[in-house]
């Protein structure tokens, strides 16, 4: 789950991370109000969307008058802003963050990630902030500092200091930088984040350290114990296909192909994707119905797969342990009784109550194509998709 920059900054500030003063605004009037609250004669206006690279897309601007603030708000609010990260369709700007400007001496890079390869939380820092860190990593890897944290021990002060030293900071800024790293780590761990990126982390001309930008993403499976974080969710910024599925407690992953997949369990999802590709097709998505899915839940899940415009054929592949094949079959039949599905639907059931499930499908007189094995199912769905679409 993502949150906005201003929300990430407010969260970090609670952990003692220095951020510039600022306020959120949903209209021109509010933006002027926030500018007046901040005082001064210059303000940074920043479009709040779930994306980075806003600066290059015209979403970040230093304004020197109320008129400029109003112009910037007029350009952004209620409009879509497209960055290299959002793709050409862009994301809706519903609010702008009004900030006091910082006098930047040096832009640095700092992030905390969950490194799945080493299974350690890893801190990454670089003197080359403000730009695309992937480019820095590719072209000048020696400018990237990484520190791995053993989760059983946590971040040690010496490690934070080591990182701060690597950033070539003036002596006056070293202590604050070290503390900022430690505080960011606390914010990351205590809020079940899986990414925290401050790009740029700034050294100001008077040797202060501030988080000028902030991005945080969180582990959705932990939201049950992170009520305050869960409240920050902004579904207008998400893929509507995924939001719809998560509202029904289904996990959904959107992909690029044309074959919609409904499965149970992530392992089976992976195997199903592989078999579809092996058979010459491309999955459009996969939707995991989880365990013990009722017929109603199965029907809702198929509807969610159908709601994806890119889907041109559907494969339902269930290996029932806690699930029941008869419930899955009943869900399919119930849905088909309610609505027509004008595309091939291949169903492969295996496991608990499979005979009963197959009987329900057989006796329903629907156009469902049944399959015995996973390979058989993948071949049938790809063949039926090719036949139906002529691709
Ligand atoms: P992003 O483009 O979405 O990553 O947005 P950022 O918040 O990182 O802002 C982009 C760039 O705008 C930064 O790298 C800075 O160079 C510049 N910028 C943002 N805020 C300020 C500020 O207060 N003062 C100055 N001088 N530059 C700023
Ligand atoms: Mn940035």
Task: Lay out the secondary structure.
Elements: H1 5-14, E1 22-25, H2 28-38, E2 43-47, E3 60-63, H3 66-76, E4 80-81, E5 91-92, E6 96-99, E7 104-115, E8 120-126, H4 133-139, E9 144-149, H5 157-166, H6 171-190, E10 193-204, E11 209-211, E12 215-218, H7 227-230, H8 240-247, E13 251-254, E14 259-263, H9 266-278, E15 283-288, H10 295-306, E16 313-320, H11 325-338, E17 345-351, H12 354-363, E18 369-371, H13 374-389
Parallel strand pairs: 14-15, 14-16, 16-17, 17-18
Antiparallel strand pairs: 1-6, 2-3, 2-6, 4-5, 7-8, 7-10, 8-9, 10-11, 10-12, 13-15
Bound molecules: guanosine-5'-diphosphate (GDP) and manganese (II) ion (MN).
The site of guanosine-5'-diphosphate has 16 residues, from β2, β7 and β10.
CATH superfamily of the largest domain: ATP-grasp fold, B domain
The CATH class of the largest domain: Alpha Beta
Number of strands: 18
* Overall morphology: elongated
Task: Characterize the largest beta sheet: strand count, sense, and whether it forms a barrel.
Answer: 6 strands, antiparallel
Low-pLDDT stretches are none
Radius of gyration from the CA trace?
A: 25 Å
Give the total of domains: 3
Helix/strand-derived class?
Answer: alpha+beta
Q: Judging by the overall fold, what is the CATH architecture of the largest domain?
A: 2-Layer Sandwich
Rounded mean pLDDT score: 95
- Percent of residues in helices comes to 25-40%
Count of helical segments? 13
Ligands bound, unique:
guanosine-5'-diphosphate, manganese (II) ion
Strand content: 25-35%
CATH-defined fold name of the largest domain: D-amino Acid Aminotransferase, Chain A, domain 1
């Amino acid at each position: 789950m993502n949150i906005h920059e201003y929300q990430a900054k407010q969260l970090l500030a609670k952990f003692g991370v220095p951020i510039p003063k600022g306020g959120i605004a949903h209209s021109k009037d509010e933006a002027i109000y926030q500018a007046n609250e901040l005082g001064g004669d210059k303000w940074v206006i920043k479009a709040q969307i779930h994306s980075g690279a806003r600066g290059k897309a015209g979403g970040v601007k230093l304004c020197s008058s109320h008129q400029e603030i109003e112009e910037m708000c007029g350009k952004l609010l209620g409009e879509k802003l497209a960055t290299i990260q959002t793709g050409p369709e862009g994301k809706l700007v519903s609010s702008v963050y009004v900030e006091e400007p910082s006098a930047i001496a040096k832009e640095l890079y700092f992030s905390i990630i969950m490194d799945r390869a080493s299974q350690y939380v890893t801190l990454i820092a670089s003197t080359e902030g403000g730009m695309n860190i992937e480019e820095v990593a590719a072209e000048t890897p020696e400018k990237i500092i990484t520190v791995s944290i053993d989760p059983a021990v946590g971040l040690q002060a010496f490690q934070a200091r080591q990182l701060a030293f690597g950033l070539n900071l003036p002596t006056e800024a070293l202590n604050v930088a070290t503390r900022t790293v430690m505080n960011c780590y606390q914010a990351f761990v205590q809020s079940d984040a899986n990414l925290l990126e401050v790009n740029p982390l700034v050294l100001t001309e008077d040797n202060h350290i501030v988080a000028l930008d902030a991005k945080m993403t969180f582990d959705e499976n932990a939201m049950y114990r992170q009520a305050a974080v869960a409240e920050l969710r902004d579904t207008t910024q998400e893929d509507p296909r995924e939001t719809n599925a998560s509202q029904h407690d289904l996990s959904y992953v959107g992909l690029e192909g044309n074959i919609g997949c409904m499965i149970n369990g992530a392992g089976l999802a992976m195997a199903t994707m592989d078999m579809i590709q092996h058979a010459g097709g491309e999955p459009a998505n996969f939707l995991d119905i989880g365990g013990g899915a009722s017929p109603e839940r199965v029907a809702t899940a198929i509807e969610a797969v159908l709601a994806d415009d890119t889907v041109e054929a559907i494969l339902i592949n269930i290996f029932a342990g806690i699930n029941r094949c008869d419930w899955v079959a009943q869900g399919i039949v119930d849905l088909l009784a309610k609505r027509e599905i004008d595309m091939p639907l291949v169903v492969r059931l295996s496991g608990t109550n499979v005979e009963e499930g197959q009987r329900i499908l057989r006796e329903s007189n629907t156009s469902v194509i049944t399959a015995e094995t996973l390979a058989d199912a993948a071949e049938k769905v790809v063949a039926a998709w090719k036949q139906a679409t002529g691709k």
